[in-house]
Amino acid sequence: MSDHRQVAVKDRRAEPTGPGRRAARRAGGDDRPPPEEPPVSRRSSRSPRRGGLGLSRWIGIGVTGLLVLGTLGGYKVYHDIEGEFKKLNIDDELGKNRPPETGALNVLIVGSDTREGAGNKRYGQHMQGLGERTDTIMLLHISPDRDKATLISFPRDSVVQVPECRSPQTKAVIPPGPRMINATFNEGGIACTWKTIESLTQIHIDHFVKVDFSGFKNIVDALGGVPICVSKDVVDKKAKLELKAGNHVVKGETALAYVRARYSMGDGSDLSRIKRQQVFLNQVMKKATSSDLLTDPIKLNSFLKAAAGSLTMDSHLNVNRMLEIAQSAKKLTAKGLQAITVPWMPDPADKNRVVWRPEAANLFEAIRADTEVTQPDKASTKPAVKNEQVRIQVLNGTGRPGVAGEAAAKLADQGFVVVQTGNAGPATGVPTTSVRYAKAETEGAAYGDALALRLSGDKLTPVAGKMRPTNVQNYAPTIPVTTPPKGPIIQLVIGNDWKGVRVPTKIPDSLKGNVVDSKTDPCQ
């Protein structure tokens, strides 16, 4: 069920460390499912309990809607109804102090439990006029190549540090501080949620899509239903769902009931439901990429008109942007989509809440590092040099202690064979970073290129001729190299303009157990 837990928690610390209670059970510290509602004393008199459908049910709407709509961008029918989509300009509210763009496409997706409009009031007509809340906050990251996507779900019980925001209704300033993450949307609107996610992840967000109840049925029905699987008979009176064990194709109210079910499936928690909905999304993607929806103008026209009233987008998500997504979405099949929930643990100050684990920082760093557009050199017949074939000498030319060791550790983690670390250059530092190889090495440039690709910033061109170090020492990797490569030793000279090592763009291995993709068992 949707609930009202958007009330800000007390300012009990300067910096919360991560997620809350529902998340806690998955961390393994508490096998009992947390209560559906917090103590009565935590409730706000301004926010009466709201029954009905919860918003984490809409995990597939915004994602599928965005990608499907994108593939329709070249059709005249899309241009004809573009004006029917609700647009919102929030540029002034985001400010100028934002993370840099990287070439990736990042879309913030939220679900709204508004009961306004003919399609939504049937789910709680008595709640019309009470505003809107969200239990669903997701970030869709599409790689610069537009061939892979990662969907990050943020548990609604997460206690996080919220930046200063402004109420969209009263324009009153909302001071910064630790709050429930869903309070950002409930109190400060989509602009506050956007600012909060950017400040927590340092990932640049390009667009947002807000979805309401009727959108779910529109998309699922337009696809002709979505296949699901349940491992046992399901009887859920709260969700009004009855399913026999086995495979089903659900649409309409049955699809709604399936994604809203909670107590009868999994461990009864909201986070368990998130994982099930991530599996459902992969099923939606499979159906969307294999159906005839995109090639049938009549179905497209019907789909678009139905969806137009269900989605609200930012003012920059226009036809041209949709056309860009259209070209990339052709490569983005269900196989290329991975879904993951931000790593969490119980909030030490309140077991009804969650805080994010340190591993969350690794996940965000991997997303930020996804900045490369792969452009293979078709003219070259030589195989690419692998990281494991490259020996590296890392020299610190900044004058700051520890820089070479830190870089060496990150490079070693990616398979490079670091043989030495040391220092080079004057006390004032070497101005620019360089990748160097011995003049006599005929293949030095190719090996240097392999290293240059893993450095942040503009790609460096390897330079012939090495720099004399002031001192060096042998490097001892955490995992010893059993068979050292025989290629040339490449020199990395770290200068004052050093931007760091680009971390792998994949989800960190430590989080692989939490990933939902096309290989995940759909029978939940």
Q: SSE layout and pairings?
A:
Elements: H1 21-27, H2 59-71, H3 76-81, E1 86-88, H4 91-94, E2 105-111, H5 118-121, E3 137-142, E4 149-153, E5 159-162, E6 165-166, E7 173-174, E8 177-180, H6 183-201, E9 207-211, H7 213-222, E10 226-230, E11 234-236, E12 241-243, E13 246-250, H8 252-260, H9 270-290, H10 297-308, E14 311-314, H11 319-329, E15 337-341, E16 344-347, E17 350-356, H12 359-368, E18 391-396, H13 403-413, E19 417-423, E20 434-437, H14 444-452, E21 463-464, E22 471-474, E23 489-494
Parallel strand pairs: 1-14, 2-9, 4-15, 18-19, 18-23, 20-21
Antiparallel strand pairs: 2-3, 3-4, 5-8, 6-7, 9-14, 10-13, 11-12, 16-17, 19-22, 20-23
Please provide a written account of the structure.
This protein has two domains: 71-376 and 506-523, Aminopeptidase, CATH 3.40.630.190; 387-501. It is elongated and about 75 Å long. The protein has 14 helices and 23 strands. The protein is an alpha/beta fold. It has helices at residues 21-27, 59-71, 76-81, 91-94, 118-121, 183-201, 213-222, 252-260, 270-290, 297-308, 319-329, 359-368, 403-413, 444-452, and strands at 86-88, 105-111, 137-142, 149-153, 159-162, 165-166, 173-174, 177-180, 207-211, 226-230, 234-236, 241-243, 246-250, 311-314, 337-341, 344-347, 350-356, 391-396, 417-423, 434-437, 463-464, 471-474, 489-494. Residues 1-15 have a biased composition (Basic and acidic residues). Residues 389-498 form the LytR/CpsA/Psr regulator C-terminal domain. Belongs to the LytR/CpsA/Psr (LCP) family.
